[in-house]
Amino acid sequence: MSVSIIDSFPIPFCQPIRNFRSKGLGDYANVGYNATKGQYFYGCKCHALVSESGYVIDYTITPASMADSSMTEEVLSQFGTPTVLGDMGYLGQSLHDRLELKGIDLMTPVRKNMKQKKILFPNFSKRRKVIERVFSFLTNLGAERCKSRSPQGFQLKLEMIPFSVFFTVKIS
């Protein structure tokens, strides 16, 4: 069974104290909320689709305020697999219904007050750790530290990170 994992991570452009003074990528970036750290940030979000083996299949960059569920269909449009694992940010019956029409089964954890049954997917949280490892690796390579002032520079930085990984592995 082919399974992929979808999630997003924040790319802050400045410290939270400077959220409303920052002008980096002003037309594209804005203020969003990082639930993991419990703080607002100025920047963008990277929505990524990752294979079970840890390869980034596809990604898209959005303003920080964009909800995870609103970008799901775009990320899955070209490289979607029959089964996709998501987190609580991808809950929503309408999203599940739209993806089901396209032949994609989106598996998410359920809230306690939901009528839906618990997830029957084996090792759900263990499989979701793959994308967290990928995001941790990208963060260690500088994906969350953005000094770019133009959209082209920002995209170049994001494209150079996987290239540098490939180049480092190839030489070793």
UniProtKB/TrEMBL annotation:
<dbReference type="InterPro" id="IPR002559">
    <property type="entry name" value="Transposase_11"/>
</dbReference>
<dbReference type="GO" id="GO:0004803">
    <property type="term" value="F:transposase activity"/>
</dbReference>
<dbReference type="GO" id="GO:0006313">
    <property type="term" value="P:DNA transposition"/>
</dbReference>
<protein>
    <recommendedName>
        <fullName>Transposase IS4-like domain-containing protein</fullName>
    </recommendedName>
</protein>
<dbReference type="Pfam" id="PF01609">
    <property type="entry name" value="DDE_Tnp_1"/>
</dbReference>
<dbReference type="GO" id="GO:0003677">
    <property type="term" value="F:DNA binding"/>
</dbReference>
<feature type="domain" description="Transposase IS4-like">
    <location>
        <begin position="2"/>
        <end position="161"/>
    </location>
</feature>
